[in-house]
Amino acid sequence: MEIGIRILIVFLVSQVVHIGAQKEGEEGCVPGFQVKEYQVEYNGGFQKDHPLTQVFFDDCAGNEGLAFEVSHPDFQVDEEMNLVARRDVMDSGTVMFIHGVNEQADDMAQVDIVGAPPRSPQTLREILGLGQIQPYRSKRALFAPRMHVNENMEPPFPKVIGTVMSPGMENDHIFHMTGSGADQDPKGVFTINRVTGEVSVSQELDREAISSYTLEVSVTDLSGKLVEGPVALLVDVNDQNDNRPIFKETRYAGEVLEGSPTGTVVMTMTAEDADDPRLQNAVLRYNIVRQSPDKPSPNMFYINPESGNIVTVISPTLLDRETLPTTQYELEIVAQDMKGRDVGLTGTATATITITDKNDHAPEFTHSLFQANVDEGSRGVAVNLTVDDRDDPATGAWRAIYSIINGDPTQNFEIQTNPDNNEGMLSVVKPLDYESVVFHTLLIKVENEDPLVPDVGYGSSSTATVHITVLDVNEGPVFFPDPLQVTKMENIPLGSFVALLNATDPDVLQSQSIRFAVLRDPANWLSVNPVRGTVNTSANLDRESPYVHDNKYTAIFMATDNGSRPASGTGTLVIHLEDYNDNAPYVHPSVVRVCEDTKDSVVIVGGRDRDIHPNAGPFKIELGKQPGLEKTWKVSRVNNTHAQIMLLQSMKRANYQLPLVVTDSGLPPLSNSTEIKVQVCTCKKNRMDCSSAGSVCSNLMMLLALVLLSLFCL
């Protein structure tokens, strides 16, 4: 029992120190029991439900969720904070402890029962009033009660926050404390009196940096031998309201569709508070303190004080983007801790809410009738159609889509939207003909990209009529057919008829004459009669000319009327040229190489002709008519276009001119006597050496030159 009394005294001292620390660190209301000690007279026992005393507890926030626990299981604290017996009690003991706790406060009070006999049996757990909070400890265990210290305590330091007690403490025993906050980083925050076990804090603490410390306490003798422990010592840093609510952003943006029902959630704004979330220090409430502009109502929006949801309050009819003074409203939002009480700290942010547009206005033409004049034969924009739309520009509710719904069966017109001003650009895409139709009447409809809201429709103002008047223009003559294609044999006589040009004047309501002229004749082969339009040759037509491509020769002619402003048109004449056998064939290549050894002396040559079938191949290639050639050379047919030349006997390494005759298959056939140069070379090991092969003719000429030079010198 004496050990229990000693533990009880140490515990009460730690609580008194803890209360004293709270009073030093706070001003005004101190959460917890306002009276820490109570006395009750013992008169032989206590009757059921009879109040012993009333306790005074205030968490400084309304005592919401407050619960009490009494160390004696037969007693409780009722709703009016009266300590009452659950049943008739005789064995109350001499002391009880009351534990009061909620989110805002956690405190203990002592009730002394004067004149009561000691309670037996009585556990240390009940003496200390710890209920389910502290585990059971044996009588001789080292005891380290949980300690509390306020953050932001003011000097001087150190300050005692509690006492650790050892029931078996002797004169040669000392206390030791280790762990983070003692001999480990952050070092020196807490110290322990080695003799008395008093624990002190040595500096100002910040709960938001470290909210609790876990230390270990042990008892040793003077030699350092462990006597008791180690046991855990928990130190909680009590929160003070020293952190303002902070919004993540200084400015927030949201939007709400015009006409939205009252109560529509626009956006959510939440702040954070670094204080203890279990206490009201971090319980936030939100409020709108300013709305700009404040028309048509200063309370168009409401913010849920707990969730931070901003909702509309204004009626849907007044939430009309087209009638509101602005499409953006700015709200100043304040977040306040302590559940919004005046003593709470505040943080501020701004919300910008945009009233977005819905398609509740149909586009309307500014005029019911538009008119324009268009030159016949022209293309391009004829008229710009203008519309009004009260919806938000740059949205699908404002952007217009135009369509031609009547009056354009031949699709001569097209209408597109100008993205800069939303006008409809009516264009002519197929040239109009004055002689066919002078007036065109079109019916145009305009719609939005986005569909209209259900209660709005397109009216008569969403359609308009366009009158197009076609103006007569002197049009140039038109060739038919164009191009005009004819077939002629090349080399026909000069002045031969080639073609008759046909051009008509589209201006049938006017009597105009037409004159023809050559506009482009690359080879200058043609001429044209300016009145009749007959085309004749003025030079030979040559199919092999570089101006002929794929056997076709192209010329361009111009026809001009005699209007007040003469107009011209062009037409194309394409002459397909048939081949005439007017080009002799030739041999290719013109230079060949053979080996001086007759067994390897074979080369292949071919015939070529600028004419085409049937005036080209098959070719006949044979030796020239010079006598003796057949003894040295042999020409034999390989196929329709190539022949083989063979050296029949060994010859000296030199260059030789070999006469050949090549004949085509035309009617009549053409022959060509030609020569090819044959280089006779030395061939060894698949290599051909022609380096010393000089022309026989060249050697003779050089010898003759030397003889003449000698005579000249003499």
Automatic annotation (TrEMBL):
Top-rank lineage group of the source organism: Eukaryota
KW rRNA-binding (keyword) present: no
Compartments in which it is found: Cell membrane; Cytoplasm
UniProt subunit comment: By contrast to classical cadherins, homodimerization in trans is not mediated by cadherin EC1 domain strand-swapping, but instead through a homophilic adhesive interface which joins two elongated EC1-EC2 domains through a region near their Ca2+-binding sites to form a tetrahedral, X-like shape.
PANTHER family: CADHERIN-13, CADHERIN-23
Biological classification of the source: Eukaryota, Metazoa, Chordata, Craniata, Vertebrata
The entry's keywords: Calcium, Cell adhesion, Cell membrane, Cleavage on pair of basic residues, Cytoplasm, Glycoprotein, GPI-anchor, Lipoprotein, Membrane, Metal-binding, Repeat, Signal
Gene Ontology biological process: adherens junction organization; calcium-dependent cell-cell adhesion via plasma membrane cell adhesion molecules; cell migration involved in gastrulation; cell morphogenesis; cell-cell adhesion mediated by cadherin; cell-cell junction assembly; convergent extension involved in gastrulation; ectoderm development
Species this protein is from: Oncorhynchus kisutch
Major location (coarse): membrane
A single MF term (Gene Ontology): cadherin binding
Domain Cadherin span(s) in chain numbering: 175-247, 248-365, 366-479, 480-587, 586-696
Any one Gene Ontology cellular component term annotated for this protein: adherens junction
Signal peptide limits: 1-21
Gene3D superfamilies: Cadherins
Name under which the protein is recorded: Cadherin-13
Cross-referenced SMART domains: CA, Cadherin_pro
UniProt xrefs under Pfam families: Cadherin, Cadherin_pro
